[in-house]
Amino acid sequence: MKIVGISSSPRGKNSNTLKLLDAALEGAAKAGAEVESIDVAKLKIKYCTACNTCQETGVCSIKDDYNGVLEKLLAADGIIFSSPNYITNVTAQLKTLFDRSPLVIHEQLFAGKYSFSLTTAGSGEIDFVLDIMNNYMAHCGGNTIGGVGCAMAKGPSAMEAAIEKSREMGKDLVEAIKEKRQYPEQEVAHEAWRDHFKYVILANKDNWTHNCDYWLEKGWIKE
Known about the structure:
The protein has helices at residues 16-30, 53-57, 66-75, 92-99, 102-106, 127-139, 156-178, 184-203, 209-218; strands at residues 2-7, 34-39, 78-82, 114-121, 143-151. By secondary structure, it is α/β, with parallel strands linked by helices. The longest helix is centred in the C-terminal third of the chain and has 23 residues, at 156-178.
């Protein structure tokens, strides 16, 4: 079993959010998973140009570090996303990674994977940022088991509690994968999304050839 953690703070080793991610990966490792941490703030990931090549061919045409990160995410059973709160949002580094994901979203390539999210903030704006990361996973077809956040203004004890909760959630992620845990409300949302998005696929079938072929193979649309 492989768990990949995504760090996106430009503060590197000084990141408080990284402390949560390290604890979560430690918990996952103790539960028996192989773990890997990827710091996207240190990688060269360019902006999406909406060229549609990935929809046409199944491969992003931009030559940078994105495709290597995507390969690791696709090979993982679980993903842990992490980002500090930057102006009530994720960091630009993580958002850029998300923006490069039309193929993953259109073809629901994270289906069957599990995730959770981590954040820290100076004040109490925690849930909104966690929801951005969890909603990304949902849009990619995967399931999320929740999230952990810490408002740094609450002091060291709050951070200690968040670190411990992150460690426990890392263990729970492994258990969710092992037992193939069911989240009926999330599965209903995935089905509803496919029911809606099939019309977008059909409207672009002449150009999004890879997407269309994939949906036909899955039985989500018919010729």
